[in-house]
Write a structure and sequence with these properties.
Helix content: 25-40%
Number of helices: 18
Order of helices and strands: HHHEEHEEHHEHHHEEHHHHHHHEEHH
Radius of gyration: 23 Å
Strand order of the largest sheet: 1-2-5
Number of strands: 9
Structural class: mainly alpha
Shape: globular
Strand content: 5-15%
Distance between the termini: 40 Å
Length: about 425
């Protein structure tokens, strides 16, 4: 789902630490470590069924999102992954023997997908191996059978464009040694089959933690499992049953509908989540979608004190209400109820209540195209307001919406808006100087 090094968040601190222990890691972890062979591919009529299963695993894993460049051919690589240290381009995983993986064996494919070791050494954290390591032998073998059917595309990709020392793949051995849990998924014995299936999908092929779990200083997942994370101007929200900022106010049907269509009775997807829905989750079976919902609902709710809402008498609330009535009423309605399965309701909205307003700033400044799926063929979009609203109007209206109709969240400031405007390279306000 995620398309950058956000998946593991490689940091400068990580490079320093990893460089210090790299030699030890190379010895202990071993580029040339031998891994057991997964199941053997099927043959004859059974192979066709296996290929179909493998295509489904590819959908679950959202392989096409990262391995297809914009305007390029499917799985031919070249998608540009921007990092703090330079660019990485996704690899060509078609069967071209010169520029793809046409010469690979199943063992080599397994080493790359589940163990983080490619033909040129350790894979960068843009590849969510921490999650894919959990793939079962059967799913890995089925996926390989499907990959072998993808037509060869000649597309030379210079994958690693990072400057020294970040282009030294051996340093990743240390990261793997400390933070890579190289183990296949194991069901929890006291949980139902449905919840275990949901856990497998969320933690394995779905790699939900890549975005929805914050990262530590070394780029590994923090202890705040699925409690939200902020990545490239988007806040991936809390997926626990927290009623204020998570899924506590959503039922199983709401979660299933959202993953299947990108919408439900409360909201519509935006940003990277829309990509995930369009490329991956809309193709999941209803049983798998229900399993994901059941698993998420079984998690302990994240903790945290709900803040008191900003007083209605606050200047930002007064001005924000006026901005809302002139700019937002037409779609989101005066009481913040929106339009069912099309325009998100703002009332009692967990994303509105989030401590991090990054996604809201992104949508307000740059607009958002709604999800276009089989179950939701008519996608509603939101226009951008960067040109229309100043750096004082935007925080006022956001503070108002984040503290009305049952919402409660910290105020948004002009500095937050200015920083987001610069980082997102959004349009300038047409009214002139932001100081007005």
């Amino acid at each position: 789902m995620a398309k950058t090094l956000r998946r593991a968040g490689l940091t400068l601190g990580a490079i320093v630490v990893l460089g210090a222990i790299g030699y030890t890691a190379l010895v202990q972890y071993g580029l040339h470590k031998s891994y057991p062979q997964a199941l053997q591919p099927e043959s004859g009529a059974a192979l066709q069924d296996q290929i179909k299963r493998g295509e489904y695993v590819a959908r679950l894993s959202d392989c096409t999102a990262c391995h297809t460049a914009q305007g390029g051919q499917a799985f031919a690589g070249g998608y540009r992954l921007e990092t703090l240290f330079g660019a990485i381009l996704s690899s060509n995983i078609t069967l071209d023997k010169e520029t793809g993986i046409g010469n690979w064996t199943q063992e080599q494919f397994d080493r790359a997908v589940r163990h983080g070791v490619g033909s040129h050494g350790y894979l960068y954290a843009a590849m969510p191996n921490n999650a894919y390591a959990k793939l079962t032998d059967r799913d890995l073998t089925d996926l390989w059978a499907y990959i072998r059917t993808i037509p060869a595309v000649k597309n030379e990709v210079v994958k690693n464009q990072l400057p020294f020392p970040f282009n030294q793949r051996w340093t990743l051995a240390g990261w793997n040694l400390m933070l890579f849990d190289d183990a296949v998924f194991k069901p929890t014995l006291n949980k139902s089959a449905e919840i275990n299936r949901g856990a497998y999908l969320v933690d394995g092929p779905g790699h939900c933690a890549a975005c929805h779990t914050s990262k530590n200083l070394l780029g590994g997942d923090s202890n705040s499992y699925l409690q939200g994370g902020t990545l490239e101007g988007w806040h991936a929200p809390d997926l626990t049953p927290n009623p204020h900022v998570g899924l506590g106010s959503r039922n199983q049907g709401d979660i299933v509908s959202y993953l299947k269509s990108g919408t439900n009775r409360f909201t519509a997807s935006s940003g990277p989540m829309t990509e995930a829905v369009e490329n991956s989750t809309q193709y999941m079976t209803d049983d798998d979608l229900r399993a994901i919902a059941s698993y998420l609902q079984s998690l302990p709710a994240s903790s945290g004190v709900q803040p008191a809402p900003v007083a209605a008498s606050d200047t930002a609330m007064i001005v924000g209400k006026k901005v809302y009535e002139s700019q937002c009423n037409a779609c989101h309605v005066s009481n913040g109820s929106g339009i069912r399965k099309m325009i998100p309701t703002l009332a009692n909205n967990p994303q509105m209540n989030s401590a991090d307003p990054s996604s809201l700033l992104n949508v307000v400044l740059k607009g958002s195209q709604g999800p276009l799926t089989h179950a939701n063929p008519t996608a509603a979009g939101m226009p951008d307001f960067a040109w229309k609203l100043s750096d004082s109007n935007i925080p006022d209206v956001m503070t108002y919406t984040r503290n009305s109709w049952g919402n409660a969240a910290a105020p948004v400031t002009s500095d937050m808006v200015a920083k987001a405007r610069a980082n997102l390279q959004s349009k300038s306000w047409a009214g002139g100087s932001q100081s007005q």
